[in-house]
Amino acid sequence: GAGVSQSPSNKVTEKGKDVELRCDPISGHTALYWYRQSLGQGLEFLIYFQGNSAPDKSGLPSDRFSAERTGGSVSTLTIQRTQQEDSAVYLCASSFRQGAGDEQFFGPGTRLTVL
Amino acid sequence: AQSVTQPDIHITVSEGASLELRCNYSYGATPYLFWYVQSPGQGLQLLLKYFSGDTLVQGIKGFEAEFKRSQSSFNLRKPSVHWSDAAEYFCAVGLRGGNKLTFGTGTQLKVEL
Known about the structure:
The complex is a heterodimer of chains A (115) and B (113). Chain A is 0% helix and 50% strand. With 115 residues, chain A is mostly beta strands. In chain A, β7 (65-69) and β8 form a beta hairpin. The termini of chain A are far apart. The mean pLDDT of chain A is 93. In chain B, 34% of the residues are buried. Chain B starts with a strand and ends with a strand. The model of chain B has no long low-confidence stretch (mean pLDDT 93). Helix content of chain B is 0%, strand content 52%. Chain B is globular, with a radius of gyration of 13 Å. By secondary structure, chain B is mainly β. Chain A binds chain B through residues 3-4, 31, 33, 35, 40-45, 48, 50, 55-56, 59, 91, 93, 98-101, 103-109, and chain B through 4, 6, 31-32, 36, 41-46, 49, 51, 90, 92, 94-106.
């Protein structure tokens, strides 16, 4: 079946603009995760959804970052007033159940470049 | 603080040679342990995972990893590397009862023909 998809694959924006990144998880997966991968660093957890609610937002780096999930499916990560340090690859993952022991399936990522 | 360390940023091996990628973690209790591979332009793919039981776990693509509690390590191995194994490898841990994964900074593997 289809895997996790993300759009756009690449996004170039100017400093100060808002951006929206989209994630379509695998159908039937209840848990959804956003991670950020910066150059030379590992993946950094941003936020986790179980259904439409976000029990863990601890990784969001500032109040410029927000995310929502609707219908227990698609999720959107929004970055307001982008800064150059926001440049990174944003990865989305989904899993059938909640819990760190459940395999997370990753999308190809959105590469964000803030000029 | 909880952490995952992959001490080798880059590793180069010849095709056919053996491979070992190191991973150490710092957690209060034994977490769930994972190895993921990321090929250029692709998402992360799970190679193998350890939850409990046998400390030597087998994964896809001929990879295996050994959990050593005394060393807080979960090193990835492959007896004979293929050119297609060139990629970036990430060790990750998850707390039992938690949800998110904490990743190491990755090891970039280059395979010389």
